[in-house]
Design brief:
Strand 6 and strand 7 form a beta hairpin. This protein is α+β, with helices and mostly antiparallel strands. It has 2 helices and 8 strands. The chain has one domain: 2,3-Dihydroxybiphenyl 1,2-Dioxygenase, domain 1 (Roll). The chain has an 8-stranded mixed β-sheet, with helices on one face.
Length: 160
């Protein structure tokens, strides 16, 4: 079963956690110093916020799936619709290891399709050896407005 995914950049994580916890009548399922996530069942949504973005607002949308078969189905649909696809395969971001790919809508909004495989203790595994990556934003790929992402080889620039 698919779960809708929304990721927003916020400027004050504490205030935003308080606001969304009241709005959803639920506490986040995960909280880090720069990130929080709610896994809601009504509505079925993976709602994430972080302070890693350059600008406050929508970072990306997407669908989280429960298994590899559903992810393959979403990928086939994107390819059949001639949507440009950025396939990252297995990657790490937003405190999770996931298998994922990205497409971009005509307005340049990134859509992430992913299957979460495991939680990890850091935002990205590269942070363990690369302190500079700690300052990077949540990394949904960016395409110019109305332009596709382009087909790319696996890279670690995504976020769930």
């Amino acid at each position: 079963m698919k779960r809708f995914h929304v990721h927003l950049h916020v400027d004050d994580l504490t205030k935003s956690i308080a606001f969304y916890s009241k709005l959803f009548a639920n506490e986040p399922t995960r909280v880090e110093s720069d990130y929080a996530k709610w896994m809601l069942d009504d509505p079925r949504v993976n709602f994430a916020i972080s302070t890693r973005g350059a600008a406050v607002g929508l970072d990306h949308l997407g669908f989280q799936v429960d298994d590899a078969t559903e992810l393959a189905e979403l990928k086939s649909r994107a390819e059949a619709a001639d949507l440009s696809l950025l396939d990252e395969g297995e990657t790490t971001c937003c405190y999770a290891r996931s298998d994922k790919h990205w497409i971009t809508d005509p307005q340049g909004i990134a859509w992430e399709h992913f299957h979460s495989l495991a939680n990890i203790p850091v935002f990205r595994e590269e942070e363990r050896s690369d302190a500079a990556s700690k300052s990077s934003a949540c990394c949904a790929p960016r395409a110019p407005r109305g332009k596709p992402l382009g087909v790319a080889v696996k890279s670690d620039t995504s976020c769930s």
